[in-house]
Amino acid sequence: MKNPFVRWFVLILGALVAVALIAAGGLAYLVSRLDVRAEVERAVENATGRDLTIAGDVGVSFWPVLGLRATNASLANVPGGRAPALAAMDEINIGVELRPLLNREVVVRQLVLQHPRIALEVDAQGQRNWILAPRTAAPPASSRPNPNPTSPPGARNAFSLRELTTTDGEFSYYDARRGAGWVIADADLKTALTSLDTPLHVDGSVRYGDKPIRLAIDVASPRALIAGRATNLRLHVASELLEADFEGGTTATQGELQGLVTARGPNLRQLAGWAGAPLQSGGLLEAFSLSGRLALSQGQYDFSNASFTLDRLAGRGDFTLSQLRGKPYLSGRLELFDFDLNPYLPGQAAAAAATTAAAPDASAAPAPTTQIAVVAAPARAIDVQQAPSAAPIDFSGLRAINADLELTTHAMLVQRMRIDHALISLVVNDGYLASTLHNVSLYGGSATGRMEVDAREPVARMTQTINLQGVDAARFLADAVNFANIEGRAEVDLNLREQGRTQSELINAADGAVHIEVVSGALHGVDLGGVARTIRNALRGELIAPQARTPFNGFSATFAVADGVLASDNLSFNTPDLRIPGLAVIDLTQRRLDMRVAPRSSHGGIVIPFAARGPWSQIGYTSDISDRALHEVQARVAQVKAAARAQAAPH
Questions:
Q1: How many CA atoms does the CB half-sphere of 625 hold within 13 Å?
Q2: Beta strand 180-193 with 339-340: parallel, antiparallel or unpaired?
Q3: Under a CB-based contact definition with an 8 Å cutoff, are residues 579 and 586 in contact?
Q4: For the chain, which end, N or C, has fewer CB atoms within 10 Å of the first or last residue's CB respectively?
Q5: Can you tell me the distance from the alpha carbon of 89 to that of 77, in angstroms, rounded to the nearest whole number?
Q6: Cα(438)–Cα(427) distance, rounded to whole angstroms?
Q7: CA-CA distance, 412 to 371, in Å (whole number)?
């Protein structure tokens, strides 16, 4: 060989091979002289307090480590445990130091576990099976001879791992108190452990369900972790659906975590399904992020000082996430910044809506915004200009989650209505929703009240008891029911009950009462004073054009509601020149008005009682000097009021 580098390389390689062969031969010789199986079983039993059984062969391992190999080994579970063993392994490869073997000591430096199955369990009394108690008491010296009297005391407990590797592992967890658990597989993990009192780092990957997860774990004190005492912990998780970091403390005996957490992912709905708590099918509940302080105990996640984003919604608060009757249960206090509620309401198509600024990262508290841009207009609960929909309303979202929340909201869109600020108590319980409005600011006024939706049966039931004070009547009625012909400051009392599967059924079954008062306003589309003075002009359309209006000092009416029909016999308009009492029937199901008024002039002028009757798209005005319309409308009002009383009576 003319090249000296090649010659030296061959010589060094040959020397290494020779040393390896000599070491392997020496190891095989030493193993043949020792009862290695008993030594390994005794060492593990002393360290863990559990019986180790090696049912397979024990011999020399040349790969993946130079040392010992044992097959079909298992570590005993607690008495009465669900699984036959706490840990079972197809094969254990133990890299040992050669010199201690001369003194009949097994000092492990490297450990490779092939297909380990670790079964973690919590029994009905809350006892954990992974709490190990080393056997520290040694039998009296007289009970057995010491094969190595020169060995220092405790030599058999020498423990140091430069590397611990698991290949194709499986970890399972089962909690008998909840009858639930999980399994992760394909666990390929690597760590080093020089002492139970020095920090431990674990790195690798596992598979949960059908998705791989990258893991990085740092434990400050492995001894404290095993003994069930508190220790510091850092955790990083990265997968297709979740990236999360945790830094804080843990108590393994209780399964507890306390510390700071950040998490983000592309789709919360998919994440919930992957985690074993699927949500009802539908859109939204996609991109999310979360940061805050986490306290995890017994399957309950307590978040404090947390900031979060979901879809285009952002907020902060203190809340708890747990399980209730097999469903996610959310409770606590939340503050929500400007958002559109419509995509989350039953029966509403997913409307693209957002704040003017992009949704902020949850790592910093987002700043409130003041505008909401609506791209797709949602449907109204009642639209007086259109026939009600016969499409079934999907209430399944109310059965997907349980909640008990105190909500503080900034600007919010509900159907077409904009709420500037609200304090709301919200309870969702297996398809039943109760919402109490404590303080709501909207349309220059305020609202209080309560709304309930009971979707536990196929036919949903709703109740609304709401009081509105000082709202802008034109803007409110336009957004609420698509009727903008009354302007002024309004007070409205709603007490309604509905039931049905569709918007049409809900309107047709509406019962209850509505009271409205409007001050210093106007009625657009008709000049009632002009009609009262000359019904002929009204018939020519001169007083019922879009530009016609009736200014009034005050308007009020109390309506009984039965089967989607509103009826009032105390209708009152007070204009500068007239007092206009009357009675009216508003049929939401037929979209028809029947009204009869009897104006009274404060200046002694001649006025004519008249009726306004017909479909909303073609109302006709006629005089009613003969009181024919009066009697017909009176009879209809009486009928509706009787039906409303019957519906309100206890059954």
A1: 7
A2: unpaired
A3: no
A4: C
A5: 14
A6: 14
A7: 9
Contact by Cβ (8 Å): 95, 67: yes
- Compute the distance between CA of residue 312 and CA of residue 372 in angstroms, rounded to an integer: 11
Closest of 142, 194, 190 to residue 166, by C-alpha: 190
**Please, what are the averages of pLDDT over each run of 10 residues along the chain (651 residues)?**
50 46 47 64 78 84 67 90 90 74 64 88 84 61 44 43 82 84 89 79 91 92 80 94 94 79 93 79 81 88 94 93 83 92 64 37 43 53 81 83 93 89 94 94 95 93 95 91 89 95 92 94 77 58 68 92 96 86 93 91 72 87 90 96 88 58
Closest CA to 448 of 462, 465, 428, 433: 465
The long-range contacts involving 580-584, CB below 8 angstroms and separated by at least 24 positions, are 580/528, 580/529, 580/532, 583/630, 583/633, 583/634, 583/637, 584/557, 584/633, 584/637
Residue type, 538: A
Asked if residue 360 has a cis previous peptide bond (ω within 30° of 0), the answer is no
Alpha helices, DSSP H only, in 185-341? 222-227, 268-274
In this structure, are residues 55 and 77 in contact, taking their beta carbons and an 8 Å threshold?
no
Distance CA 131, CA 175 (A): 15
Please, which residues bridge with residue 256 across strands? 251
Closest to 523 (Cα-Cα) out of 464, 466, 565, 582:
582
